Amino acid sequence: MKTTLKKTMAALSAAAVVAASAAVMAVPTSAAGVSLTMGSKTLTLAELKAANYQVTLPIGVTDSINSVGFGVTLGEGLTYVDLEASVKKATCLAATNDAGNFVFAPFAYATVPLKAVSGQIAAITVEVSKDAKAGDTFTLSIDGKDSDGVETSYKNGETGDSGVPGGGAGTITIAEDPTEPTTEATTAAPTATPVAATTTTAKVATATKKPAKSTSSPKTGDALPVAGVAVAVAVIGGVALVAKKRK
Questions:
Q1: Where are the beta strands (DSSP E) in 146-191?
Q2: Which of 5, 52, 132, 158 is most buried, taking the most CB atoms under 10 A from its CB?
Q3: Phi and psi at residue 145, in whole multiples of 5°?
Q4: pLDDT value for 227
Q5: Higher confidence at residue 17 or residue 216?
Q6: What is the model's pLDDT at position 181?
Q7: 58-78 as b/e, with b when 16 or more CB fall inside 10 Å?
Q8: Residue closest to 59 by CA, chosen among 169, 183, 164
Q9: Residue 7: enclosing H or E segment and its boundaries?
Q10: What angle do CA 140, 178, 184 make, to 5 degrees?
Q11: Nearest to 68 by CA among 57, 56, 76, 60
Q12: pLDDT of 187-225, one tens digit each?
């Protein structure tokens, strides 16, 4: 009788566990109280090379939690490098699959008294393919699943709320390097009036211009012009001739 009772209780317990698990599994992602978020970043090819092709993105939650398990799937062209908790005294130990394109990490945070955290909880660093070029976009997705696709759960220790977290996605975008602005139009010398040529022409004109004839009477001591001398001679000769006839 005792054996039968134990078997019955065990069966009921197992059924209860299965029912509870099914109830949690049945929570749709869109109806989850907490969702996981993945940051995005845009950088130029020069910036990517300067960072040795490594990019770090934030991982967060949309509401307060104390624990959550999440998986990050890396898109083509990305390789896992590191993942660390962003909250002091929190643990977040990451493990990757053999291909290196999936990372699973359980996050846990406990304090006395118990306090929940929200916002950024971790940061993941990935390496972008060295074949990356301007215009390329690489995607990372995050959700509450492990490498086998089994759903995990979050829990808020203060309120007791729990459930399957919703998922999200982030991107790494490679932008064009800025081009150097052309300076030809701004540095070209403006067209100016050839001042030197104008000045030279003015000087030549001044040099070749004949002085105007003076119409004023000559001053005492000035030399008479040739025509004036001839007239004077003629007058003097006439006076002499008249004087001679009178004698």
A1: 154-155, 162-163, 168-175
A2: 132
A3: -140, 150
A4: 44
A5: 216
A6: 61
A7: bbbbbbbbbbbbbbbbbeebb
A8: 169
A9: helix 2-25
A10: 170
A11: 60
A12: 555 555 554 544 444 444 444 455 454 444 444 444 434
Q: Edge to edge, what strands does the sheet with 78-85 contain?
A: 36-38, 54-65, 117-128, 78-85
Q: What is the pLDDT of residues 155-181, one digit of tens each?
A: 999 999 999 999 999 999 999 988 766
| Beta-bridge mates of residue 67 | 108, 155
Residue 79 one-letter amino acid: T
- Predicted TM-score (pTM) of this structure: 0.61
Report residue 22 as tokens. Answer: 């099914």
Reported in sequence order, the residue ranges of 110-163 that DSSP labels E, i.e. its strands, are 117-128, 137-143, 154-155, 162-163
Task: Determine the residue type at 39.
Answer: G
Length of the chain: 247
Q: Give the pair of three-digit tokens for residue 201.
A: 């022409």
